[in-house]
């Protein structure tokens, strides 16, 4: 792994926005695409910070600072990326949210960015959105896709409630569920035949590329 990739976690933990952005910008300018930057650079850096937290080598405050710094560079990257690329038609809509009491949202934000770069109109509702508010927002906006993120296993029961409620909306949206737990456990009893389970950003991009065929081929 190149040295600059190893540097990113410490830059995020120190809250060094400018140096973190310079590192990410250098990788972008070397020709790497968004999927690579998100999955191989940002996600791995935040995963390493999570590992340090589990080992009690960084504090919750450190992790929060790293997250806010990461949010800054992701927002700046997305602004520059969309400014540079050809304007794509926005014929589909996707809404992104974390289940109630779920706070980890950076992976979901990167998934949202991939949809946006592919020409989707997006709304990022962020972490900890109660079902009643998610349902109201979806009824009003009528997204084609609703993407849910959760990372705490004992929230699986409320996942079932979100899926049942959102898949029953009149506009018949596709519900995608993502997060690190998807590759570790089976959630067949918590989902429907229509629910799409995605465990990585690579799978997210593949699903986007094959939409609407992905509705049939990626359902778990």
From TrEMBL:
One of its GO terms (molecular function) is cobalamin binding. Residues 91-218 form the B12-binding domain. PROSITE patterns: B12_BINDING (PS51332). This is Cobalamin-binding protein. The lineage of its organism: Bacteria, Bacillati, Bacillota, Bacilli, Bacillales.
């Amino acid at each position: 792994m190149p040295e600059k990739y190893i540097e990113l976690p410490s830059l995020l933990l120190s809250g060094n926005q400018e140096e973190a952005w310079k590192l990410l910008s250098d990788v972008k300018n070397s020709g790497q695409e968004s999927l690579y930057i998100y999955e191989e650079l940002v996600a791995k850096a935040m995963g390493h910070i999570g590992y340090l937290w589990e080992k009690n080598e960084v504090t919750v405050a450190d992790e929060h600072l790293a997250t806010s710094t990461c949010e800054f560079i992701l927002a700046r990257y997305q602004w520059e990326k969309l400014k540079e690329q050809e304007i794509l038609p926005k014929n589909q809509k996707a809404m992104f949210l974390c289940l109630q009491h779920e706070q980890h949202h950076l992976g979901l934000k990167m998934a949202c960015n991939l949809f946006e770069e592919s020409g989707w109109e997006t709304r990022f509702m962020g972490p900890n959105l109660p079902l009643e508010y998610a349902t109201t927002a979806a009824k009003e906006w009528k997204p084609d896709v609703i993407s849910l993120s959760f990372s705490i296993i004992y929230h699986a029961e409320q996942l079932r409630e979100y899926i049942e409620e959102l898949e029953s909306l009149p506009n018949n949206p596709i519900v995608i569920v993502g997060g690190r737990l998807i590759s570790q456990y089976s959630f067949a009893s918590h989902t429907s035949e229509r629910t799409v389970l995605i465990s990585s950003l690579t799978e997210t991009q593949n699903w986007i590329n094959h939409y609407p065929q992905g509705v049939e081929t990626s359902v778990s």
